[in-house]
Amino acid sequence: METSHPKILADLPIGSRLIVRSKKDWRSAAISKIIEETVTLVVSSPTGFSYRLKRNLKTEIFFDGEIPFLEILEENWRKNFVRYDFRW
C-alpha cells in the first residue's frame, strides 16, 4: 500500500514534527499553532531553550523517506544534525 505525503505545511496537523535548517545545522521542530495563513513552529535549540519561527501555510515541505523537512536537502542532514544537551 502506497502512502501519500502532504506537500505543504497546511497538510500537517498541530504537533507534527519536522526538521528545519538553521544557519549552521539541522534542528527538530514541531508545529505549535495555526492561525489564518500562518504556521508557528517551535524549534529546539542545543542549549535547552526553544524559539519560534512563523511560516506561510503554503510553504512547501520535502521528505527523506518518512521524515519531513522544511527546506530542500542539499546536504546529508544526518551529518550536521544538532546535538542537544541531554543533562536536563
Give the biggest sheet: 4 strands, antiparallel
Structural class: mainly beta
Q: What is the helix content?
A: under 10%
Question: Strands across the major sheet, in which order?
Answer: 1-2-3-4
The whole-angstrom Rg is 13 Å
Distance between the termini: 41 Å
Please give the count of helices: 0
Give the amount of beta strand, in percent.
35-45%
Based on Cα principal axes, name the global outline. globular
Order of helices and strands: EEEEEE
The overall strand count is 6
Quaternary structure of the protein: single chain
Return residue spans where pLDDT drops below 50 for at least 5 consecutive residues.
none
Instruction: Average the pLDDT over all residues and give the rounded result.
Output: 79
Describe this structure as you would to a colleague.
The chain has 88 residues and is mainly β. It has a domain at 9-69. Helices cover 0% and strands 40% of the residues. It has no helices and six strands. The chain has strands spanning 17-21, 26-35, 38-44, 50-56, 62-64, 67-69. A four-stranded antiparallel β-sheet has the order 1-2-3-4, with no helix packed on it. It has a two-stranded antiparallel sheet with strand order 5-6. Strand 5 and strand 6 (67-69) form a beta hairpin. 8% of the residues are buried.
